[in-house]
Structure formats: structure tokens, C-alpha cells
Amino acid sequence: MQQRLATVFIYGSLLPGHSNHQVCAGFIQSAVPGVIQGRLVDYGPYPAMLRDAAAFTSGASVRGMWIVVNEQGLKRMDELEQFAGIEEENDYDRVWVTDMHQPEQSGWVYVWDTPRGCPPIAEDYWPDFYARKRG
């Protein structure tokens, strides 16, 4: 029986070299860089992405990585992001997006629907921001 695969855009602590990468690392089948429309807010040790009116009006984008994982990998990321399912109470929602520069590239991304009082991150790549923040 063939396992189903899922494509997910990662942009924060799931990226290689960051605190939660081990959650998905063992399940990654392939990875390529990407850019999607959205904006980041600073939640401290990790960011959250918003795909709200402010992000679309400003044309904001977020750089990250498209990864392909099996069902088990997607389940592990859902658990980390506290995503229970569509129309459930979730910390992060999982929504379908398309890459801004590679229209053939699409998949899931974890997002918040509001900034929840967190300050905006003015740049498009969280690892650079986080490295400067940590000094």
C-alpha cells in the first residue's frame, strides 16, 4: 500500500537548524525553497504567519521551504501546531496556498487568523530576524 504524501510550506521553527525541525525531519521526502503571500508576527521563540487583509494589501511575502512528507509527518506537524481539523478549535489553522513565483507549487501552511497582540516582523525570512533578535 502506497502512503499518501503531503506538501507543506514551513517558515519558522520547523526549518532545518531550528527548534522544532526534528518533528518533521525524519519524514521529509524532498525540500525546495519557496515564497508565499503572507506576513509574520513575533511570538517569541517562533513566528506565526497571517494571510489577512493587511498581508494582501501590502503584498507582503514570506520565504521558507516546501517540504513533502508522508501522512505520519503531517500528523506530527498537526500535533505540534495544535491543528485538530477544519472547523475545530485550533491554535494554528492549516490552509492551502500556492507559491508566488512557482504557480505549479502548492500545499499546506500553518497560519493564525489574527496577530493575537504579537508585534509584526518587518522582513520576509524568520531565521534572519530570529538570529538578530538573539544577538
From TrEMBL:
Q: Which Gene3D superfamilies match?
A: Gamma-glutamyl cyclotransferase-like (3.10.490.10)
What highest taxon heads this organism's lineage?
Answer: Bacteria
Stretches assigned to the Gamma-glutamylcyclotransferase AIG2-like domain: 8-126
- Do you know which CDD domains this protein is assigned to? GGCT_like (cd06661)
Q: Which Pfam families does the record cross-reference, listed alphabetically?
A: GGACT
**Cross-referenced InterPro entries:** AIG2-like_dom (IPR009288), GGCT-like (IPR013024), GGCT-like_sf (IPR036568)
What's the name of the protein? Gamma-glutamylcyclotransferase
Source species of the chain: Paenibacillus lignilyticus
Q: What is the lineage of its organism?
A: Bacteria, Bacillati, Bacillota, Bacilli, Bacillales
